[in-house]
Amino acid sequence: MDDTGLKIGEVTERTGLSIPTLRHYDSVGLVTPSGRSPGGFRLYAEEDVRRILLVRRMKPLGFTLEQMRDFLDAADVLRDGRADDAGARETLAEIRAEARTRYEKLLKRLAYAEEFLELVDGLEA
């Protein structure tokens, strides 16, 4: 990659994540920038940003870094059309099922919060 990628500050603006978070993702091998500038600064390609956004969406659902890494690896296998896609499809199915379960739990908690707010508001009526 040449030095035309996005610098870390630009990526933080687009993703809403902090610089330390992006550096951590790089250090643990979750999302590694595609390049470096001549001065050694991280440079992110659009594909890197897409991966970061996937991670950002998984984080509030409580997925571990390992689960995120497994998901990204599986997505890469399927996107590239590699022959070893059976394991990738299984990983995606597991992540999808887990995401659905976590989503439904969040919906229930949200409904409880709305109900609670209605009760609190009703105390002042």
Give your account of this protein's structure.
InterPro entries: DNA-bd_dom_put_sf, MerR-type_HTH_dom, MerR_fam. GO terms for molecular function: DNA binding; DNA-binding transcription factor activity. Residues 5-74 form the HTH merR-type domain. Keywords: DNA-binding. It is a single chain. The chain is mainly α and 125 residues long. The protein has a domain at 1-59: Multidrug-efflux Transporter Regulator, Chain: A, Domain 2, CATH 1.10.1660.10. Helices cover 68% and strands 6% of the residues. The chain is built from five helices and three strands, in the order βααββααα. A three-stranded antiparallel beta sheet has the order 1-3-2. The radius of gyration is 19 Å and the shape is flat. The model has no long low-confidence stretch (mean pLDDT 93).
Helices and strands, with pairings:
Elements lengths: L5 E2 H8 L3 H9 L7 E2 L5 E3 L1 H13 L6 H16 L4 H39 L2
Task: Label this structure with key terms.
MerR_fam, 68% helix, mainly alpha, Transcriptional regulator, Multidrug-efflux Transporter Regulator, Chain: A, Domain 2, flat, DNA-binding transcription factor activity, 125 residues, MerR-type_HTH_dom
What's the total number of strands? 3
Task: Quote the distance from N terminus to C terminus.
Answer: 63 Å
Net shape: flat
| Widest beta sheet: strand line-up | 1-3-2
Strand content: 5-15%
Task: Indicate the percent of residues in helices.
Answer: 55-70%
Regions with pLDDT < 50 over 5+ consecutive residues?
A: none
Protein structure class: mainly alpha
Output the radius of gyration: 19 Å
* Helical segment count: 5
The sequence of SSEs as H and E is: EHHEEHHH
Mean pLDDT: 93
> What fold name stands as the CATH topology of the domain at 1-59?
Multidrug-efflux Transporter Regulator, Chain: A, Domain 2
For the record, the CATH architecture of the domain at 1-59 stands as: Orthogonal Bundle
Domain HTH merR-type: 5-74
Organism: Corynebacterium maris DSM 45190
GO molecular function: DNA binding; DNA-binding transcription factor activity
Protein name: Transcriptional regulator
